[in-house]
Specification:
Structural class: alpha/beta
Shape: elongated
Radius of gyration: 26 Å
Helix content: 40-55%
Largest sheet: 6 strands, mixed
CATH topology of the largest domain: Nucleotidyltransferase, domain 5
Length: 507
C-alpha cells in the first residue's frame, strides 16, 4: 500500500455508528478524523425481529452525513461493517440496499467471531509487543465479544448475545435503577456467558483489556470521580452501581464524566460488565485504545498484500479440515482463472479490483469439493451449506454467501440458484468455474490445445470453439459441454459449444 493513502472504516454498531479516517504511514495508521453518532438502532426491533422504519431512517440519515465526508474515496479505501443488530434483523436487506446507495460503498455484515477477531486486531495493533497473554472484551449494544490472544494473533474468539442496549430495554425498561433490576440483569447475563467460563478461564490470560462502549464509559466516570485513569476495577464498578441505585432512575443520574448518550443504557451496560468481571474473575480491566474500526483499517492494509490476507489462511484450514483434494482444487483453480481471464476486458478494471475477483474465483475453486466430506451425492449442495454456515475468519456473511453460491452453482441446473444473472462479473466467474470442472473431470491436467473461449458481454453469449481433433479425442468432455449448453438455455445468458471450421489446405 502506498504511503499516505487515506483509509476509512465505518462501524454500524447497535448503539452507535462510527466513522474512522486514517492515513497509512510506514506500517501505522494515523488518525485524521473520527465521527460518532448515537443511532441506537438496536432498540428499534418489532415483535417479528424487523427494524422499525424510524430506526432505519435514523441510520440512513447518519450514513448520509458520513457519505459527505468520504466523498471521493475509492472502493479500495473504504470498508463498512455491520454487527449484531443487522445480523439479527429480518429486514436487513432493505436497510443495506438503501444504505449502500447512500454511501456509495457496500455494507458487510460480519459474524460475531469475525467481529471479535477484528476488535482484537484493533486493540493489539495499538499495544506494545510484550508477549503477554491477553483477554479482550467489548460490550456492545446487543452483543459482547471475548477474545484470547497474544501480540497480534487472536487464538480464541467468541460472541455472546448480551449487550448494553438489549439489557437496558429488557431489565430497565422504564429507566428505574433498582437492586431487583440489577440482580435480574446480572443473573441473566451470567446465564448467557456461562459457556465462556470454560473457553476463557483465568489461567489462560495475564492481562485483561476492555474495548469501546461500556468499558470506556464506566472508566470515564470512575476517572472523573478520582479513581485511577485508564482502568476499571471491580471495586470501582461496585461503587458506580451504588451511585446508580442512589439515583434510582436514569433521569436522575448526574455522574461527572458520563456522556448524555450513555445515560439511557448505563444500567444495562454496568450490569453486563459486572456479570462478566465476576464470571471470569477479572479484578481489573485496562481500557484499550483500539476497537473494531481500527481493526478494520489494519485489515484493509493486510488485504492489500495477498501474503497477509487472513482469508487465504481460512480457506486453507477449511480445506485441510474437510480433506479436500488439494491437487484437484489447484488444477480447477488454475483452469478457471485462465478461462475467466478470457471473459474480461482488462482495460475496464483497476488492477487491484481485478485481483479481488480472481481471488474470489480461486477460493470457490479451492472449495468446490468441500461437500465430499459429507456425501458424494449432491456434494455441491453440502459444500454450499458448509460455506454459508462456517465461521471463516476474514470473511463477511455476504462474502460467504456468494462463495457458497458459486460452489452450489459449479455443477447441475442453474435455475436452482438465487443469483442475479444481471451481475456480469459473477456470471463470468460461474461459467469459468463450471467449465474448469468439466475440463478437469478426469482429475488430470486438461488438454486445452484446440480450444478457444470468448465472451460477448453485450449479447450475453459465451462461446467455446473446439477443433475436430479435440472433439474426436475427448468424447466425455464433449458430452459434458453439450449438457452445459442446455443448462444455460433457461437463463438470460447463452453458452455455445461449436466446432471450428476446417481450414482448407492449398492444392
Amino acid at each position: 500500500m502506498k504511503q499516505g493513502t487515506l483509509l476509512a472504516a465505518i462501524d454500524l454498531g447497535s448503539n452507535s455508528f462510527r466513522l474512522e479516517i486514517g492515513r497509512y504511514e510506514h506500517g501505522q495508521i494515523q488518525r485524521i478524523e473520527y465521527l460518532k453518532e448515537t443511532v441506537r438502532q438496536g432498540s428499534g426491533f418489532d415483535e417479528n425481529r424487523n427494524l422499525s422504519q424510524e430506526s432505519m431512517v435514523r441510520g440512513w440519515e447518519c450514513l448520509a452525513r458520513f457519505a459527505e465526508r468520504i466523498a471521493g474515496f475509492q472502493k479500495s479505501q473504504v470498508r463498512v461493517v455491520a454487527t449484531q443488530t443487522l445480523r439479527e434483523a429480518k429486514n436487513r436487506e432493505a436497510f443495506i440496499k438503501r444504505g449502500r446507495d447512500i454511501l456509495g460503498f457496500p455494507i458487510e455484515i460480519i459474524s460475531g467471531s469475525e467481529e471479535a477477531r477484528l476488535i482484537y486486531q484493533g486493540v493489539s495493533h495499538l499495544l506494545p509487543t510484550d508477549h503477554k497473554r491477553r483477554l479482550v472484551i467489548d460490550i456492545g449494544g446487543r452483543s459482547t465479544e471475548l477474545v484470547l490472544g497474544q501480540n497480534l494473533q487472536a487464538h480464541v474468539t467468541g460472541s455472546f448475545r448480551v449487550g448494553s442496549v438489549a439489557w437496558s430495554m429488557k431489565y430497565f425498561p422504564d429507566g428505574a435503577l433498582t437492586e431487583q433490576a440489577f440482580s435480574k440483569a446480572e443473573i441473566a447475563a451470567k446465564a448467557v456467558l456461562e459457556e465462556a467460563l470454560e473457553k476463557y478461564p483465568r489461567s489462560q490470560w495475564d492481562t485483561a483489556y476492555g474495548a469501546s462502549g461500556t468499558v470506556g464509559a464506566v472508566a470515564d466516570v470512575l476517572q472523573a470521580e478520582g479513581w485511577p485513569a485508564g482502568e476499571v476495577t471491580i471495586e470501582g464498578l461496585n461503587w458506580l452501581i451504588k451511585q446508580l441505585l442512589r439515583a434510582g432512575h436514569v433521569d436522575n443520574v448526574r455522574q461527572p464524566g458520563l456522556k448524555e448518550d450513555r445515560r439511557a443504557v448505563i444500567g444495562g451496560g454496568a450490569s453486563v460488565l459486572r456479570a462478566l468481571m465476576q464470571s471470569l474473575d477479572i479484578d481489573k480491566l485496562n481500557v484499550a485504545q483500539g476497537a473494531l474500526r481500527q481493526g478494520v483499517l489494519f485489515e484493509m492494509v493486510e488485504r492489500d498484500d495477498q501474503a497477509t490476507d487472513v482469508r487465504d489462511i481460512s480457506i486453507q484450514r477449511l480445506a485441510q479440515k474437510f480433506a479436500v483434494d488439494q491437487t484437484q482444487s489447484q488444477r480447477v483453480s488454475r483452469v478457471a482463472l485462465q478461462l475467466f481471464n478470457k471473459t474480461i476486458d482488462h482495460s475496464e478494471y483497476e488492477a487491484h479490483l481485478l485481483q479481488r475477483l480472481k481471488r474470489k474465483l480461486s477460493w470457490a475453486a479451492s472449495m468446490h469439493e468441500v461437500g465430499f466430506a459429507i456425501s458424494h451425492s449432491d456434494y455441491h449442495k453440502h459444500g454450499a451449506y458448509i460455506l454459508e454456515n462456517a465461521d471463516l475468519l476474514g470473511f463477511s456473511m455476504q462474502e460467504l454467501q456468494r462463495l457458497g453460491l458459486l460452489v452450489l452453482g459449479h455443477r447441475g441446473k442453474l435455475r436452482k440458484l438465487e443469483a442475479d444473472f444481471e451481475e456480469a462479473e459473477f456470471i463470468k466467474m460461474l461459467i469459468a468455474l463450471r467449465m474448469a470442472v468439466i475440463l478437469c473431470h478426469a482429475r488430470k491436467n486438461p488438454d486445452q490445445s484446440g480450444l478457444e473461449f470468448n465472451c460477448n458481454e453485450k449479447s450475453k453469449q459465451f462461446t467455446l470453439e473446439a477443433d475436430a481433433d479435440w472433439i474426436e479425442s475427448h468424447p466425455q468432455s464433449v458430452h459434458l459441454l453439450r449438457q452445459e449448453v442446455i443448462a444455460w438455455q433457461k437463463t438470460p445468458w447463452a453458452f455455445a459449444f461449436t466446432q471450428a471450421a476446417r481450414v482448407k489446405q492449398p492444392a
